[in-house]
Design a protein that fits this description.
alpha/beta, 12 strands
């Protein structure tokens, strides 16, 4: 399967290039970075700490999309919706690990998914998606007398909060309670907030150091507390999940899918 890596110069981009080189059944067909990047023209393999692969980093995605089977995209929302439109034109698989997507962005992905296989998730790891399934089940089992709080921590360079993974877990908790997250979410607390309202799903975001990603979902009741947690120790777990998603998506009907679909968790 011929794959393009978008955001090739970023942490995840370099990890994806390395993972593609180490994975049977996939090959690097192109590498993209933003206009003006100092990485343009460099060999993608060298950029990822590998021997040269003969694939230069370019800023024009159009000719690459025309001859690839899929694109893996951990970039930024504005870039992601543009890549989705191109993926729809080329009828290829688009794996989206970009976080910070708003409702408007998701609407554009849904439109592109009429012609492309788009697999979008706030986190591509197996463990996190299994955790989301557990969160949904626990939330469905426990009543509103258990308060739900989601705590996440990432490296100091992360630009969005809460993380896409935290929102994924929040959506799972809300689905378990059959409510909309947008109506129950409390993004932060500061000052005199008053007592906590029943049914709220709270979020706390911590930033510092080089933390890859840590997430905890706390169900706090009277005199007891249940905590479900996941700790990412290497970005390779996200890259491997994204490659699994791309291979799963090849040959599928156009549509907007999630990692739950890829892993069969919706069965």
């Amino acid at each position: 399967m011929k794959l393009i890596v978008a955001g090739a110069g970023g942490r995840m981009g370099r990890m994806l290039i390395k993972s593609i080189a180490e994975t049977d059944g996939v090959t690097l067909a192109g590498a993209i970075d933003q206009k003006g990047s100092s990485n343009l023209g460099k060999d993608a393999g060298v950029l990822a700490g590998l021997p040269a692969l003969g694939v230069p980093v370019l800023d024009d995605p159009l000719p690459l999309f025309a001859r690839a089977d899929g694109v893996i995209d951990f970039t930024a929302p504005a870039a992601t919706v543009q890549y989705a439109a191109l993926a729809a034109q080329a009828r290829i698989v688009h794996v989206v690990g970009t976080t910070g997507l708003e409702d408007e962005d998701m609407s554009k992905l849904e439109a592109a998914a009429r012609h492309a296989v788009i697999i979008q998730s706030g986190n591509m790891s197996l463990g996190v998606n299994l955790l989301a399934g557990l969160v949904k089940r626990v939330a469905a089992t426990l009543g509103e007398e258990f308060d739900i709080e989601i705590v996440e921590m990432h490296h100091r360079m992360k630009v969005d909060a809460p993380s896409g993974t935290a929102l994924l877990l929040g959506e799972a908790a809300a689905a378990g309670r059959n409510v909309a997250l947008r109506e129950t979410r409390v993004a932060s607390r500061d000052g005199f907030t008053g007592p906590r309202k029943p049914g709220q799903i709270g979020f706390a975001a911590l930033r510092g150091g080089t933390v890859v990603g840590e997430h905890s979902v706390i169900f706090a009741g009277a005199s007891e507390r249940i905590e479900l947690a996941h700790r990412a120790e290497d970005r390779g777990i996200f890259a491997r999940g994204a490659l699994k998603a791309a291979q799963w998506g090849r040959g599928r009907k156009p549509g907007l899918y999630s990692m739950s679909d890829v892993l069969g968790l919706n069965d």
